[in-house]
Design a protein that fits this description.
By secondary structure, this protein is of the alpha/beta class. The protein is built from ten helices and four strands; from the N terminus they run αβαβαβαβαααααα. It has one domain (about 5-255): 3-Layer(aba) Sandwich (Rossmann fold). The structure holds nickel (II) ion (NI).
Length: about 260
Amino acid sequence: MLLAHSTWKEVEAYLARSRGVVIPLGSTEQHGPIGKIGTDAQTAESVAHGLGARIDALVGPTLAIGVAQFNLGFPGTVSVRATTLMALIEDYVLSLARQGFERFYFINGHGGNIAPARAVFQDIYSGWSLGTRPGNAPRCRLRSWWEYPEANRLRHELYGAGEGMHATPSEIAITQHVDARMVDVARAGADAAPPVLPVEFIRDHGGDNHWDARTHRAAFPDGRVGSDSALARPEHGRALLEASITGAIDDYRAFLAEP
Ligand code: NI
């Protein structure tokens, strides 16, 4: 059930049977030579919409622009500051909390969103902890689509070290499954595998904790960060998406069932 396609009467009726809402969270940034700029929004949205099609869950509008300042050296990238994303998430949650929603389940497609989202969840709870907001505090959870155990196992089995950190074959495979044009794009532009990332780099820059845009483009001239994007296949994407949807359904249900 998509919020944007529902009437307010339908949302009111939904609230009588559930207090949960699912929100896709993405990014609009370069994804290497064969990855679309909307990869992170499309992967998160595909998982969320797949969940919403199978169980009685309301899926809110996708937040498609995230924190990606390090990719601004590549044409097409649009980034918001961390504080802007935090304000947007806060207003999104408080709008729906006012109407009775209590459990907010974010399905994320972009590493750079994780720290700001978790930080603003704490700020949202503060409104209740400090006694300035009435009633029950909402609860927020964020999961990235690749975290679900079967999806995580599958991407490492399929790609090993070639999975890398950005423009990963797993995320591109999902977009190839959802959008056949991306298969043609990949065929036309296969690139050699980039160097494997040193463990120290992964330690220091996990969660897209990268430097500024000029430094980033100099270090990763074609936009891939240790990822062999050319390994992506649409049939992998179908399996990865299925694993993520299944994992998300179980995890969302457990979140709603928490006392
Ligand atoms: Ni991505």
